[in-house]
């Protein structure tokens, strides 16, 4: 029987790889810049898409409440910093969604045009899956 491999979603509490990244708010070093904090690192496929726009607006309106819980937000996308900046400006200046308007995104959005970070995250997830599978035999 052929073995089927699936990539499960990373779980809360899974360790993310260390990385340095260029963002809309300057360079970050993860996890060093976020020591002692919870982080929601989330990815979206492309700027200027309707679903991603509403997700970013929602996260932006929740940011202060999350900070009170010692939690920071970091967005990740394959688009360039210039595309990110144009998109975030559009969100603030032109988008009105379910009573949210003039929403300013104040958390960093990572540029990953070469998919380096996204590949790294998938790789870590695959290693977690392999570790789980090998533990089944002991």
Write the layout of secondary structure elements.
Blueprint: E1 19-23, E2 26-30, E3 38-43, H1 50-68, E4 71-77, H2 81-94, E5 96-97, E6 100-101, E7 109-111, H3 116-135
Parallel strand pairs: 3-4, 4-7
Antiparallel strand pairs: 1-2, 5-6
Would you tell me which CATH topology applies? Glutaredoxin
- Main sheet specs: 3 strands, parallel
Order of helices and strands: EEEHEHEEEH
Structural class: alpha/beta
Residue share in helix: 25-40%
Number of E-type strands: 7
CATH architecture: 3-Layer(aba) Sandwich
Based on CA inertia axes, which overall geometry fits? globular
Across the major sheet, the strand order is 3-4-7
The CATH homologous superfamily is named: Glutaredoxin
Mean pLDDT: 83
Q: Would you identify the regions where 5 or more consecutive residues have pLDDT less than 50?
A: 1-6
The structural domain count equals: 1
**What is the strand content?**
15-25%
Report the C-alpha radius of gyration, rounded.
17 Å
Write down the CATH class: Alpha Beta
Terminus-to-terminus distance: 22 Å
3D architecture notes:
By secondary structure, the protein is of the alpha/beta class. The chain has a single domain, classed as Glutaredoxin, CATH 3.40.30.10. 38% of the residues lie in helices and 22% in strands. It has helices at residues 50-68, 81-94, 116-135, and strands at 19-23, 26-30, 38-43, 71-77, 96-97, 100-101, 109-111. The protein has a three-stranded parallel sheet, with helices on one face. A two-stranded antiparallel sheet has the order 1-2. Strands 5-6 form a two-stranded antiparallel ribbon. A hairpin with a 2-residue loop joins strand 1 and strand 2. The two termini are 22 Å apart. The model is unreliable at 1-6 (pLDDT under 50).
